[in-house]
Write a structure and sequence with these properties.
single chain; about 375 residues; alpha+beta; Methane Monooxygenase Hydroxylase, Chain G, domain 1; Alpha-Beta Plaits; Double Stranded RNA Binding Domain; 3 domains; three-stranded antiparallel β-sheet; 9 helices
């Protein structure tokens, strides 16, 4: 009968470290303070503040629950292992192994949460998928990626709100923009930003030739209300047009779709999936705020990079991940080297292996 004490001790040490670097005791105090404020009679008078504090409490509770569940698993594994060794019970040994496997996964999740050091990492994400080189094939590829990310969100229990996803002229979609809401969604999904390359037999080519196609993925944070982004009304051009996709009873019958152009930066955002023109404008402004914030951040980063010295620029051909469907089956992340032959699972939203590896590399974790 194998004694699992050494594995249990190692995972116990990792769990103790997680309690310290995640400041679990402090989070208990913060959560208690927030929950006390919820009982104030005027708490919901300021809806934006109340919503922000409610989400903050939910995030704190999520980290605490994962930690406390890990503590229970550690205790279960310890007791089961001790009984299995003393009694020679194979069933208890199996229970100890199962508890350790689940404990390892929970500790991995806690360590992952510790890598999100930016406050925006804990918030929601605006994801855009745009066809690149490859013509009609690229529109089909964009739709495949759109489905992949919605399936990934579903697996994590995140909410997806589609803002704009007009269908392509022949196949696929023209583009897609959607908001993903949940715990650490921006921190996780930001790892997907970049160019994605697909190699397969073209479904539209009668000669069945191999086709290489590209699509770009952009991930922006949903900015909290306390982050100010200056947008002057005089800098905006707002156009309305007939919506072309699903989104409500009024779609396709009224000019409810909205396109906003920020003239100084020539930044264009669209939204057409809400039922009214006002709702579409509000959603488009949310995306515009995020994009202008990213532009400003990029300017500051460029100024720092100029001081640091030149570096190679990323270009359209420098994809972050290759998806090969023919002549063999392989998905490989160019940045981390992580790969798998189970392409079908990846396209169905099995992305954690790539995202976690990239975040681990970025954080410099072992």
């Amino acid at each position: 009968m194998e004694d699992l004490s050494l594995q249990i001790d190692l995972l116990g040490s990792r769990l103790s470290e997680a309690e310290n670097y995640l400041h679990i005791k402090d989070k208990h105090s913060q959560l208690a303070d927030l929950e006390q404020s919820f009982s104030a009679p005027d708490f919901w008078d300021d809806q934006q503040r109340a919503t922000r504090l409610s989400k903050q409490a939910a995030d704190l509770k999520s980290d605490i629950i994962v930690y406390e569940e890990a503590v229970v698993l550690l205790d279960d594994a310890t007791v089961a292992n001790e009984l299995a060794v003393s009694d020679g019970d194979e069933a208890l040994a199996g229970e100890a192994l199962e508890a350790l496997a689940e404990l390892g996964a929970r500790i991995d999740a806690l360590e992952l949460a510790s890598w999100f050091t930016n406050d925006l990492d804990h918030g929601d994400a605006i994801v855009s998928v745009n066809p690149g080189q490859g013509g009609l094939e690229a529109q089909d590829w964009a739709e495949m990626l759109f489905r992949m990310y919605t399936r990934y969100a579903e697996k994590h229990g995140w909410k997806v709100e589609v803002l704009d996803a007009p269908i392509g002229e022949v196949i696929g979609i023209d583009h897609a923009t959607f908001i993903v809401s949940g715990h650490n969604t921006y921190g996780m999904l930001h790892a997907e930003q970049g160019v994605h390359r697909l190699v397969r037999i073209s479904p539209t080519d009668v000669k069945q030739r191999r086709q290489t196609t590209f699509a770009g993925v952009e991930v922006l944070p949903v900015l909290p209300d306390d982050i100010e982004v200056e947008i002057r009304e005089s800098d905006l051009r707002v156009d309305v047009y007939r919506s072309s996709g699903p989104g409500g009873q009024s779609v396709n019958t009224t000019d409810s779709a909205v396109r906003i152009t920020h003239l100084p930066t020539n930044t264009v955002v669209t939204c057409q999936n809400e039922k009214s023109q006002l709702q579409n404008k509000e959603a488009a402004m949310k995306i515009l705020r995020a994009r202008l914030y990213e532009i400003e951040q990029a300017k500051r980063e460029a100024e720092l990079e100029e001081l640091r010295g030149p570096r190679a620029e990323a270009s359209w051909g420098n994809q972050i991940r290759n998806y090969v469907l023919y002549p063999y089956q392989l998905v490989k992340d160019v940045r981390t080297g992580v790969e798998t032959g189970n392409v079908e699972a990846v396209l169905d939203g099995d992305l954690d292996q790539f995202i976690v590896a990239f975040l681990r590399m970025k954080a410099g974790a072992s």
